[in-house]
Fold this sequence. Notes:
Layout (H helix, E strand, L loop, with lengths): L3 E5 L8 H14 L2 E6 L1 H11 L7 E4 L12 H4 L5 H10 L5 E4 L3 H12 L9 E7 L5 E5 L9 H17 L7 E5 L10 H11 L4 E6 L11 E3 L2 H26 L3 H9 L1 H11 L7 E4 L4 E4 L6 H16 L2 H19 L20
Parallel strand pairs: 1-2, 1-4, 2-3, 4-11, 6-9, 7-8, 7-9
Antiparallel strand pairs: 5-6, 5-10, 10-11
Helix pairs in contact: 1-2, 1-11, 4-5, 6-7, 6-12
Amino acid sequence: MVTKIAVDAMGGDFAPQAAVEGAVAAYREDGTVVVLVGHQEAIGVEFRRLGIDDRAIEVIHTDEAVAMNEPAITPIRKKRRASVRLCAELVRDGVAQAMVTAGNTGAAMASAMLVMKTLPGVDRPALAAVLPTSTGRRTVLLDVGANISTKSHNLRQFAVMGHLLAHEVLAVESPRIGLMSVGEEEGKGTQQTREVFKVLEATGLNFIGNVEGSDVYSGELDVIVCDGFVGNVLLKTSESLAGMVGGMVREAVAGSWRSRLGAFLVLPALETVRRRIDPEEYGAAPLLGVQGGCLIGHGSSSAHGVRNAIRRAVEFSQADVVGKIGGKVAIMHEQEEIVLGRADSDSPTSMADGPVAEE
């Protein structure tokens, strides 16, 4: 089956230019089948600028969009023809396998949850950021903002979903999973993290225990689980730090002629580092736990970022991450009942019946 990606052409700080240009790049460079959802006339202007036939890429017209400062519920209650909602409807109806937006994050999540619906057994979806590390590997951090407060079983579901994203999309054979806490010892953290620790130890996932903030970029973990409050603060702090360091480097090399000469000599190395830490190289964060692919990029995403987000959406769809999450979460629920002592001892499912992790 051909994988089709619905792209929100009216979402993001640089819409529609960045969204259209990124979609055209994905079509030209990768042969990706995309459908652009947005104002047809504005999209047509970009097509002509890029020298592409209007018939090459499907366009679904709407003149409604959700601004960055509008409430998340806007596409559900007021703007029912908003571009982000129409993208979610295309995925729900099977017209597209995944959607990509750089628009209002809350509106994208609300559209995905209320139009596409969550997977059976998943109480709350999680937004997963894919971060660079010092070793060149990437680490999945979730949740980074979909849920400000969570319960223990939400974190356990996040672990399963993060495992599957790392395994199926990042091609990690046996993803190493850590639980964010205030110390590495089992007894550290809140009552919630201690309970989650107990269950994750017995699931068959490659759970290595509690981790701390200093472990995020070490490259020793493939998945880090936390609630959306902690994850969002960590992500925004990291983005701010990266921006500050980049600015300091630019300021330093703009000084004397010796500095400029040194910068010229190390330019290839600096460009390699820039690509490794640039969030646009991965493109977007997938919303895990909904019935279809939903990838949300940064509001300031460029055409390059949108193109890469579309690539991630194709990988996500072709790996059938959604279907695999549904099956594994069901097993997880049965296993955690046993570990926490809430299941019937005669239950047909036991920990010996097989791990959650892939064999």
